[in-house]
Amino acid sequence: MDILIPTLIVAALLAVLIVLMTGVLGMAKGGGFNRKYGNVLMRWRVALQGGAVLLILIAALLSRG
Fold first, then answer.
1. From residue 34, how far is each of 21, 50, 58 by CA, in Å?
2. Which pTM does this prediction carry?
3. What pLDDT is stored for residue 65 in this prediction?
4. Alpha helices of the chain — where are they, by DSSP H?
5. If phi over 0 gives left and psi between -120 and 50 gives alpha, with beta otherwise, what is residue 59?
6. Cβ pair 19, 41 in contact under 8 A
7. In whole angstroms, how far apart are CA 4 and each of 1, 9, 11, 19, 38?
8. I need a labelling partner for 25 at 20 to 30 A (CA). Which of 15, 18, 50, 63 fits?
9. Residues 44-53: pLDDT tens digits?
10. How do the pLDDT tens digits run along the chain, 65 residues long?
11. CA-based angle 40:42:48, to the nearest 5?
């Protein structure tokens, strides 16, 4: 359990970074890809960020007690 939560946090943060960079690069390039996937990618980013924050809060609560 000591390694599970930090591993999940790192995985969630990497997923956020990948989705964020894909969305930013898509917006910079523009065109059909951005029209089709831009909004979806930003929604995924928000959901993944929420999951990462939740995991960080769980880790903080578990380390307290």
1. 13, 23, 35
2. 0.87
3. 72
4. 4-29, 31-64
5. alpha
6. yes
7. 5, 9, 11, 22, 32
8. 50
9. 999 999 999 9
10. 689 999 999 999 999 999 999 999 999 998 999 999 999 999 999 999 999 999 999 999 999 87
11. 105
pLDDT at 2: 82
Burial class (CB in 10 A: 0-12, 13-18, 19+), 32: exposed
Query: What is the spatial distance between Cα 38 and Cα 9, in angstroms, rounded to a whole number?
Result: 25
Residues 6+ apart with CB under 8 A from 52: 9, 12, 13, 16
Tokens matching residue 1: 């359990």
Residue 6 has which token pair? Answer: 């930090």
Joined tokens for residue 10: 């790192």
Closest to 37 measured CA to CA, from 50, 24, 46: 24
